[in-house]
Write a structure and sequence with these properties.
Chain C: InterPro entries: ABC-5_transporter. The complex is a heterotrimer of chains A (124), B (297) and C (355). Chain A folds into two domains: 11-78, Orthogonal Bundle (Arc Repressor Mutant, subunit A), CATH 1.10.10.10; 83-121. Helices cover 56% and strands 8% of the residues of chain A. Chain A is built from five helices and three strands; from the N terminus they run αβααββαα. Chain A has helices at residues 11-25, 37-44, 48-60, 84-103, 108-121; strands at residues 33-34, 64-67, 71-74. Chain A has a three-stranded antiparallel β-sheet with strand order 1-3-2. The two termini of chain A are 12 Å apart. With 297 residues, chain B is of the alpha/beta class. Chain B has two domains: 3-213, P-loop containing nucleotide triphosphate hydrolases (Rossmann fold); 220-276. Chain B has a six-stranded mixed β-sheet, with helices on both faces. In chain B, a hairpin with a 2-residue loop joins strand 9 and strand 10 (205-211). In chain B, helix 4 (130-143) runs parallel beside helix 5. Chain B starts with a strand and ends with a helix. The longest helix of chain C has 45 residues, at 3-47. Chain C is flat and about 90 Å long. Chain C has helices at residues 3-47, 50-63, 75-82, 88-95, 97-116, 119-125, 130-163, 173-200, 204-225, 239-244, 249-272, 289-306, 314-337, 339-354. Classes of the chains: A mainly alpha (124), B alpha/beta (297), C mainly alpha (355). Chains in contact: A-B, B-C. Chain B binds chain C through residues 12-13, 43, 46, 49-53, 70-74, 78, 80, 83-85, 87-88, 93, 96-97, 100-101, 103, and chain C through 1, 3, 6-7, 9-10, 13-14, 117-122, 124-129, 273-277, 286.
């Protein structure tokens, strides 16, 4: 996972999407232990409170679960647990983005290529 | 709980160096004090530590005034990196002095760090390389067990490896021992991810106090080119200028909103682009805002 | 550990080697002096015996045709002529000038060492009371120094009694005790001068010159007003002199101790209020500039003018005093205020007026 210093996104949001991405790509799997707040902060030389904030958000979204005294783990993803509201929200954002790029003159197959590339190589 | 500076002012000669400074710090928090050279960061630290006697103001530690109970200062660590007695002593001798000054001094922790970082015990401090001195200063700071630690330019002149080690010690101390750290640095890029809050000091005052993650979600840095030569008034009112080059303006909206975006769109700008927001931008913006108000006088 | 114990440890850790050095120096100088004195007395003994002296005086009397017989020659006069009348010169030589300078130096060191090596920064940042540190430090350094001196003095007298014939050295116990008290009080006052000058004056050279200048003038001052022989309060040729001039020794001891207490109290007050940002010229405390200038002018004028170097008329004394005062004022003004600062201020003002 990379934290981009020059991104306009807050670091905790980057951390959230980074962990989600790692789970999606299979780097992190269900019941895997994620680094503790302290370790994660040290890896990215980041404020521990920022990490802790990201973990809290991820816990509230049922992505991670913290077992007291043991650590934080990736929670099992259940199809029925899908947060439909969240998905709808992200879908709207995605569609808006597509509108924008088509307005800028990007062709449909180009967009398809991007998506393909992302799933194949993980390049964003 | 917490460490608070209340209404601190300091004059040197006839010059106001610091005026009515209020800063608070809670355990587990890292606060960055940023400001240009000569703005009084070190003077502030020395006044807090008691090396200078401030004209007004006092320090409150865990809800008690230092003036009333001097022993509270054992809860505060400040090392003057320019003026200290270390040069002619070995690090263990220096640690002896600090162990006597801080009852909470953790000798075991200190020894472990000295071994871990391979700090020479028989060599005098002045013969240490700059990196080793910097590392030792941090080791000392967090060995004292003081819950509030002030670090003046702790990363200055350190190489990448030592800087990494310093970061690790600070992060450990904050996350594990809930230390509150007040840190000054002119290297804003390095502070950017490390600190919770950034306090900007300019012209003897505090001009801004940002909670960085909140600010990042609320604020936007945008690059704009308007068709007219004039910058629209709503932009001037709601933003702070970072740079203006011809018609290309880069501004910071501290509280960005959908309405503002709509207003900008309504102006039909030739360029409207969001840019990554760094600590440096916040710093520049708060400084330029101050300058413009001074210009109005 | 209690605060007191921790502070004791800090002071001890910091100063043990210096204290060892001071003790070694005192013992060394004192021993060298004792040996020197005994040797010179032994040499004199060989050359000049009492019998020889009687013979010599009689023949002198015969030559000058004065009827002066040995029988009329009193023992006291003999001792006075020999210069070893009551042993006080033996002490006086050893314990006056060198140790006077030494003690001032120790006082200056007590204040300046921590300032210049930035140990004050550590103490001021710590939870220790500054006053407490000041007293602990001064106490440890001065008491060990003084105790060494006293022990050496007693040893000195003891050795003199043992090795020098009572013809040359015989003093009463009460005289020795009084003299010892006189030294202790005097040294304490001198140490206090060094300590307070070291706190008030910024810079090793400036402080040293100030301390010695003040001390020199002070000796003249006490010489004139707390009168005793040769204007030096640390050199009493005989009991006779002490009885004749100025306040008695016990009164002097009290005066010295009061002065020392006042100066040490003031030094602790200033140390407690010392702000380390003043890298200013000469003085550490800006608000003392004016009082110091006034004090120095009056003090030097008074001493030089009022010292009465043979002036019998009051008008003459005043004239000298005023002239000295004016010269002192100018010199002190330059030293305390540093004229380039004033010159800059004048320039700034004139440039402000123009704009």
């Amino acid at each position: 996972m990379q934290i981009n210093k020059t991104s306009s996104k807050p670091f905790y949001e980057q951390l959230i999407s980074g962990i989600k991405e790692d789970i999606f790509k299979g780097i992190l799997q269900t019941d895997d232990k994620v680094p503790s707040v302290r370790e994660m902060a040290k890896i990215h030389e980041m404020n521990p409170n920022t990490v802790s904030k990201a973990y809290k958000v991820l816990e509230s979204q049922d992505v991670l679960v913290t077992v007291k005294g043991r650590g934080t783990y990736v929670k099992a993803t259940n199809e029925s647990d899908r947060d439909e509201r969240q998905i709808q929200k992200v879908r709207t954002i995605l569609l808006d983005t597509i509108k924008e790029v088509t307005y800028l003159g990007v062709q449909e197959n180009e967009i398809h290529d991007w998506i393909k590339q992302y799933f194949e190589k993980g390049e964003s | 709980m917490g460490f608070e500076i209340k209404g601190l002012s300091e004059k040197i000669g006839d010059k106001d160096i610091l005026k009515d400074i209020n800063i608070s710090l809670v355990p587990g928090e890292i606060v960055g004090l940023i400001g240009r050279n000569g703005v009084g960061k070190t003077t502030l630290f020395r006044s807090i530590a008691g090396q200078y006697i401030p004209d007004t103001g006092d320090i409150l530690i865990d809800d008690q005034w230092i003036k009333e109970d001097l022993t509270l200062k054992e809860k505060l660590f400040y090392l003057d990196t320019q003026n200290n007695f270390f040069d002619s002593y070995t690090i263990d001798k220096i640690a002896d002095f600090y162990e006597l000054a801080y009852q909470t001094f953790d000798r075991e922790k200190y020894n472990n760090w000295v071994i871990e970082y391979d700090l020479p015990r028989q060599t005098k401090y002045r013969q240490f390389s700059k990196g080793m001195q910097g590392l030792f200063n941090i080791v000392l700071a967090f060995s004292t067990g003081a819950p509030y630690v002030i670090l003046d330019e702790p990363l200055d002149g350190l190489d990448v490896i030592v800087r990494k080690q310093v970061f690790q010690i600070i992060i450990d101390a904050v996350s594990e021992d809930q230390r509150g750290v007040l840190i000054s640095s002119h290297n804003l890029e390095e502070l950017d991810r490390l600190i919770d809050r950034a306090i900007v000091l300019k012209g003897s005052h505090i001009v801004s106090d940002y909670r960085l993650e909140d600010t990042r979600s609320e604020a936007r840095k945008v690059q704009l080119v308007f068709k007219s030569k004039e910058i629209p008034t709503f932009v001037k009112e709601n933003s702070r200028a970072i740079s203006i080059q011809g018609r290309v303006v880069v501004v910071l909206f501290e509280h960005y909103s959908a309405e503002l975006e709509a207003q900008i769109q309504a102006e039909d700008p030739a360029l409207f682009e969001e840019l990554p927001l760094t600590l440096e931008d916040l710093f520049r913006a708060s400084i330029s805002a101050k300058e413009s108000t001074e210009g109005e006088k | 550990m209690t605060v007191n114990k921790r502070l004791n440890q800090i002071v001890w850790q910091r100063y043990k080697w210096f204290i060892a050095l001071f003790v070694a120096l005192i013992v060394g100088v004192s021993m060298m002096n004792t040996v020197g004195t005994i040797n010179s007395v032994k040499d004199t003994e060989k050359m000049t015996t009492y019998e020889y002296y009687v013979k010599q005086t009689n023949s002198d009397a015969k030559e000058s045709k004065i009827k002066n017989h040995v029988s009329q020659l009193d023992y006291k006069k003999y001792q006075a002529d020999m210069g070893y009348n009551d042993g006080s010169t033996i002490l006086g030589n050893a314990w006056s000038e060198i140790f006077l300078l030494f003690i001032v130096g120790v006082g200056l060191f007590t204040s300046l060492y921590d300032l210049k090596t930035k140990f004050n920064e550590f103490i001021f940042s710590s939870g220790f009371s500054r006053r407490r540190y000041f007293w602990k430090k001064s106490g440890l350094i001065f008491i060990t120094t003084l105790a060494t001196i006293v022990i050496c003095m007693i040893a000195d007298v003891g050795i003199a009694k043992l090795f020098i014939s009572s013809n040359y050295f015989h003093v009463s116990e009460s005289f020795l005790v009084l003299k010892l008290g006189h030294y202790i009080a005097g040294y304490t006052a001198i140490y206090a001068v060094g300590t307070i000058v070291g706190i008030l004056v910024n810079g090793i050279l400036a402080a040293t010159i100030t301390a010695f200048g003040f001390l020199g003038s002070w000796i003249i001052f006490t010489g004139a007003f707390l009168n005793n022989s040769m204007g030096n309060p640390f050199n009493y040729a005989s009991e006779y002199n002490m009885e004749m001039m100025g306040p008695s020794v016990p009164v002097q001891i009290v005066i010295f101790l009061i002065l020392a207490a006042l100066m040490m109290w003031a030094a602790s007050y200033f140390f407690n209020n010392l702000s380390l940002e003043q890298d200013g010229p000469y003085l550490q405390f800006n608000y003392l500039k004016k009082p110091l200038l006034i004090f120095v002018t009056l003090y030097i004028g008074f001493i030089i003018g009022g010292q009465g170097r043979g002036y019998t008329k009051l008008s003459e004394m005043i004239k000298v005093g005023v002239i000295t005062g004016i010269i002192t004022f100018i010199v002190a003004y330059i030293v305390i205020y540093r004229p380039q600062n004033i010159w800059q201020k004048i320039q700034n003002k004139s440039s402000k007026n123009k704009s």
